[in-house]
Amino acid sequence: MSEAVHHQLTIPFEHAGQRLDQVLTELLEGYSRTRIKEWIDAGQVRVNGVQLRPKDKVLGGESVEINATLPDQVSVEPEQINLNIVHQDKHVLVINKPAGLVVHPGAGNAAGTLQNALLHFDSKLSLVPRAGIVHRLDKDTSGLMVVARTVEAHTALVRAIEAREVEREYEAVCVGVMTGGGVVDAPIGRHPVDRLKMAVRQDGREAVTHYRVVTRFRGHTHVRLKLESGRTHQIRVHMMHVHYPLVGDKVYGGRMLLPKGASPELIEALRGFKRQALHAARLAFEHPVSGKPIVNEAALPADIQELLGVLARDTAAAATKKR
Questions:
Q1: How far apart are CA 172 and CA 225, in angstroms?
Q2: If I label 282, which of 136, 274, 293, 300 is the partner at 20 to 30 A Cα–Cα?
Q3: Does residue 138 have an active-site annotation?
Q4: Concatenated DSSP letters for 32-94?
């Protein structure tokens, strides 16, 4: 059975001059550019009431209406997978996702995903697009995600994300010692050679990341980050761009760097940290029905806490030797 998809939005003026399919892919998080192009070609997307082509350029300010369908290409079966639910009511769930859990089924991950778990938790989520998932975290990023339990809540949350009204803050451990916080304002697009990666590029989509220092260590920094936009791999790409890649990031992290005289404990901890040290720590939004503020925070998971503990002990030991 196909899922009905309905969206109404206004294209922000900042996207003037961009292709229609590119803009809609950015504004409608969760749908691929291929899917968006199929809808446009099928006449399921109207811009100011007119059908355009995927490559047509927008001016900004246009009214877009989408009435499309999502065919069931893959049957997603309910699976009993434990969920850490930090907020729930009749309309929304907030999940604290563990590292290692894939959000959607896909190539190489047909089962064992968050979507499978959600369908087991609440069978009525089969009536909501993508089982209520309105945004994503990478497989190896832990932390908070909001899930819609009704079609109405799903529509409202998607619009809130499009309007950047959902606040998302992260914590990370970076390689290198920062002198202070800052802002990375650098557009992100697909890597020109490796299509599985993203990169900072002038023709990319606007992306802004704010970061501030929580704790400095001898060779690393614990930071808090806030997104203005939500591009794929944004934090990982931006931190690499300013030469402070995330610890454990196999794609964007480069080779492991150790401070001079690193303790055996620190060497073992860094070598054994097999995922990007990134955690979605805070999620805040207006409830899609009541309008009341929903604010959730999730403490750092054990692996990042243990890493920070090792970094602190190494820094303290080095300071003692200097005395």
A1: 8
A2: 274
A3: yes
A4: -HHHHHHHHHTT-EEETTB---TTPBP-S--EEEEEEEE---SPPPP------EEEE-SSEEE
- Rounded to an integer, what distance in angstroms lies between the CA atom of residue 146 and that of residue 87? 9
The string of DSSP codes covering 199-256 is EE-TTSB--EEEEEEEEE-SSEEEEEEEESS--TTHHHHHHHHTT-PBTT-TTT--S-
- The pLDDT value recorded for residue 35 is 84
32 vs 8: which has the higher pLDDT: 8
CB-hemisphere CA count at 13 Å for 205? 21
Q: Rounded distance, CA 203 to CA 187, Å?
A: 7
* pLDDT averaged over every residue in the chain: 91
Among 21, 138, 303, 314, the one annotated catalytic: 138
Banded model confidence at residue 4, pLDDT cuts 50, 70, 90: confident
* Token digits of residue 94: 């907030």
Provide the 10 A C-beta neighbour count for residue 136: 18
In this prediction the pTM is 0.79
Please say whether the beta carbons of 20 and 55 come within 8 A. Answer: yes
Strand partners, 70: 3
| Tens digit of each residue's pLDDT (9 = 90 or more) over 163-188 | 889 999 999 999 999 999 999 999 99
Question: Is the Cβ–Cβ distance between 172 and 223 less than 8 Å?
Answer: yes
